[in-house]
Fold this sequence. Notes:
five-stranded mixed β-sheet, 121 residues, Transposase_IS66_Orf2, alpha+beta, IS66 family insertion sequence element accessory protein TnpB
Amino acid sequence: xxxxxxxxxVYLARGATDMRCQIDELAARVxxxxxxxxxxxxxxxxxxxxRDKLKILVWYRNGFWLWYRRLxxxxxxxxxxxxxxxxxLSIRELQWLLDGLDPSQLQGHRTALFSEISSLI
Length: 121
């Protein structure tokens, strides 16, 4: 299986992508439109106009993987804006997106800063 670690980046291609595109066309889109290296072992995520289908392209060792996900009733959150500028996410944020959440709206707990330990007791 593919090992995804903290160095793996996730790039979302803004706007709609024709889901008839296969590996070669998506790799060309990564290189030409997103100005990124499709052989970088990072994840490149594409969504259709209806926002119910995703494709994820990744190079792993000696070939491409292409993952496809189709929702039956709901829609994915998807960024709008300049289609030549991908949105970078973490692996964790990608998981949120796949779970139906908007990664740009999620916030964790704020960091608590204390001047001394006695204030905690």
